[in-house]
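To the structural biology subgroup,

Please find below the input and predicted structure for Glutathione-S transferase omega1, which we are adding to the shared reference set this quarter. The sequence is reproduced verbatim from the submission form. If anyone notices a discrepancy with their own records, reply to this email rather than editing the shared folder directly, so we keep one authoritative version.
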Amino acid sequence: MGVKYLKKGDPQPPPVGAGKLRLYSMLYCPFAHRPRLVLAAKGVAFEMVDINLKNKPEWYSLLHPQTKVPALEMGGGEVVVESLDISEYLDRKFPDPPLWSADQEKNRRHKQLLESFGKILPSYMKLLGPNASQLVDEAVSSIAAIIKPFENELAKSGTKFFGGARPGMLDYMVWPWAERAEALRSLHPDAKLPLQDFPRLLAWGAAMKQDPAVKETAMSPEAHAAFIKVYRDGTLDYDKL
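Predicted structure (tokenized):
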């Protein structure tokens, strides 16, 4: 896609100007996808710098001690790290449109769901690993159990999105993995996720694809699948992404 990923030996970008935002990212990383969705939803301009996560620039540890993505840098040198913290920060700094509800009980449920969603990562990583074909059934069973409460929440609310009539914070925080699900299904055609058990989540996914922020940040299933293949095979070359 012609993206330049900064690597070891590359100079650090100049300081961020006053009132400006710079997001350190990696185009295919679902965690880095989260704040890009929030920024797009709020119509906030920003500079994106992609990082080579196999050969990271020496200076990046000064911004993020764990050298992960994403990291958000602002004028004056302030830095926020971790996808959820960045997204929460952006929602406070740019409150229109708000991504949390005025209903605090609803927010409490959604934060609990978001916390539980973190349990999906080990199963997701199994589907990316070299032994994925032997672990598909176990991973899919685990994922189905984790997302069932999300199906129930949509049934309870009776709304198209978790946020109501439009996507909210929970919608955008889980969407990056939903976007990659189609690519994973193409790579694991024998996976037996019981789709009939998730009619509301399927409708939610179709509605999310029509959201302007999702469209702005979207990548095709084919692009995701191609990345997953080279990641899984150990042949990932950032200069060829």
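Summary notes: Strands lie at 5-6, 21-25, 47-51, 71-74, 79-81. The radius of gyration is 18 Å.

Regards,
Lab coordination
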